């Protein structure tokens, strides 16, 4: 195993278990360049580790084709994931919205249980042991790094992508994959990443405010491309929160092809622009400020009024139609002046990687390089926030590890 993060540890556990099941000694070694293992596991979910979600299917992912993603997920689904973690001493509890966390709410417990399960199965973990190259050596491989070399009959690439590079995911895996004949997508971009807005935007002055929103990605022509609902968090640099993180990869890719692509935010999800215009016209006795403050945090309501140029004290039934329209547009169809993303340093995942079409889905073995498997974020699969990317790590790690430990699979 090259990499001992979530997917790498899962692959090591199941490769060793599969070897034992066929009566072979589990000669499994996981190499990881990080000084401390499992950084992404430890920081996930605010230090609690959102292990998975109670409902996971291919619709929660982007990248490779949905049928290919479904094929892998079904080999090791949520039910098997819950059973696996229970078997290594980690009971999972469901929170509102479907996220599954360890009952202890400690990410450290998850990491310790995975490492313990790897050792118990007979796998060996070496770190810090940075891999710099993997080369063919007859039917096997030579894995090399500053600390020396290893000979391996089979290799699982579980290096991660490029998100959160301080954890050790610095993109090396993509170079290794290419050197062994695998294709990598033309794009490798941050996913689940906060977005930056123009310095003069009022959002920057509302740091700390979190509200439910409906957010759309629209083409330069105005055509709706992607829509998300969920919480948005205003920050000192722009926008974060689940809805923003989920749509971020789509915004980055869209802007590459269409500089006019943009995000539109509805701060009152469920209320359409025309509905609000009509409601404002009927608002006898109420003020513009009162209407918005009844539904939104005061600072946000006042900022939206200022942005629309509407007098906060103005009675709604005396507002001119163009003023009502300006206010409704700002509230229900605000074109956020997004200027960029915060990059891989702040991203939770990588969009792009080795397409699943490069592998045999029953084993995640490379078609172009027999004996080489891939698992986790190095593959062109990225999920929504909420435990979906961890589920991909568990599912793909199981498939690749089992096949590597039992080559006849």
Summarize the structure.
With 409 residues, the chain is of the alpha+beta class.
In whole angstroms, the N-to-C terminal distance is 18 Å
Please give the order of strands in the largest beta sheet.
17-16-13-14-15-12-18
Please identify the structural class as seen in this structure: alpha+beta
DSSP strand content: 15-25%
What value does the average pLDDT take? 95
Q: Structurally, how many domains make up the residues?
A: 2
Radius of gyration: 24 Å
Low-confidence stretches: none
Can you give the helix content as a percent range?
A: 25-40%
Biggest beta sheet summary? 7 strands, antiparallel
The CATH class of the largest domain turns out to be Alpha Beta
Q: What is the CATH-assigned architecture of the largest domain? A: 3-Layer(bba) Sandwich
Tell me, briefly, the overall form: elongated
By CATH's scheme, which homologous superfamily of the largest domain applies? FAD/NAD(P)-binding domain
The name of the CATH topology of the largest domain is: FAD/NAD(P)-binding domain
Number of helices: 12
| Count of DSSP strands | 23
What's the SSE blueprint?
Elements: H1 6-21, E1 29-31, H2 39-47, E2 52-53, E3 61-63, H3 66-75, H4 78-87, E4 92-94, E5 99-102, H5 107-121, E6 124-126, E7 133-137, E8 140-145, E9 148-152, E10 155-157, H6 172-179, E11 189-191, E12 195-197, E13 210-218, E14 224-234, E15 238-240, H7 242-257, E16 262-266, H8 273-281, H9 288-293, H10 298-308, H11 321-332, E17 334-336, E18 338-341, E19 349-351, E20 359-360, E21 365-366, E22 372-374, E23 381-383, H12 388-405
Parallel strand pairs: 1-6, 10-22
Antiparallel strand pairs: 2-5, 3-23, 4-5, 7-8, 8-9, 11-19, 12-15, 12-18, 13-14, 13-16, 14-15, 16-17, 20-21
Helix pairs in contact: 1-5, 1-12, 2-5, 3-12, 8-11, 10-11
């Amino acid at each position: 195993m090259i990499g001992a993060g979530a997917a790498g540890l899962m692959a090591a556990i199941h490769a060793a278990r599969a070897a034992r099941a066929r009566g072979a000694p589990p000669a499994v070694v996981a190499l990881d360049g990080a000084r401390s293992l499992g950084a992404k596991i430890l920081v996930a979910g605010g230090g609690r580790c959102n292990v998975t979600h109670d409902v996971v299917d291919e619709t929660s992912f982007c990248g490779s084709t949905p049928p290919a993603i479904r094929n892998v997920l079904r080999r090791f689904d949520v039910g098997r994931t819950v059973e696996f973690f229970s078997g290594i001493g980690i009971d999972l509890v469901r929170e509102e919205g479907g996220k599954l966390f360890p009952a202890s709410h400690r990410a450290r417990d998850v990491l310790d249980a995975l490492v313990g399960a790897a050792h118990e199965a007979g796998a060996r973990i070496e770190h810090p042991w940075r891999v710099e190259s993997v080369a063919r050596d007859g039917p096997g491989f030579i894995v090399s790094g500053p600390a020396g070399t290893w000979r391996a009959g089979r290799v699982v690439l579980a290096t991660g992508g490029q998100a959160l590079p301080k954890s050790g995911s610095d993109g090396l895996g993509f170079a290794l994959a290419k050197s062994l004949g695998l294709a990598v997508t033309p794009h490798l971009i941050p996913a689940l990443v906060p977005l930056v807005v123009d310095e003069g935007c009022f959002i920057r002055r509302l740091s700390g405010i979190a509200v439910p929103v409906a957010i759309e990605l629209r083409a330069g022509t105005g055509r709706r491309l992607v829509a998300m609902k969920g919480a948005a968090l205003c920050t000192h640099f722009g926008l974060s929160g689940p809805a923003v993180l989920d749509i971020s990869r789509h915004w980055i890719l869209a802007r590459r092809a269409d500089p006019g692509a943009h995000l539109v935010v509805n701060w009152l999800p469920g209320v359409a622009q025309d509905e609000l215009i009509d409601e404002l016209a009927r608002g006898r006795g109420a003020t513009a400020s009162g209407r918005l403050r009844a539904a939104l945090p005061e600072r946000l309501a006042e900022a939206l009024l200022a942005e629309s140029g509407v007098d906060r004290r103005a009675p709604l039934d005396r507002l001119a139609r163009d003023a009502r329209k300006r206010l409704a547009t700002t509230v229900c169809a605000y074109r956020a002046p997004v200027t960029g993303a915060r990059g891989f340093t702040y991203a939770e995942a990588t969009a792009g990687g080795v397409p699943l079409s490069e592998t045999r889905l029953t084993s995640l073995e490379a078609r172009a390089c027999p004996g080489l498997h891939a698992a986790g974020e190095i593959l062109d699969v990225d999920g929504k926030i909420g435990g979906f990317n961890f589920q991909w790590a568990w599912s793909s790690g199981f498939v690749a590890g089992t096949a590597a430990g039992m080559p006849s699979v």
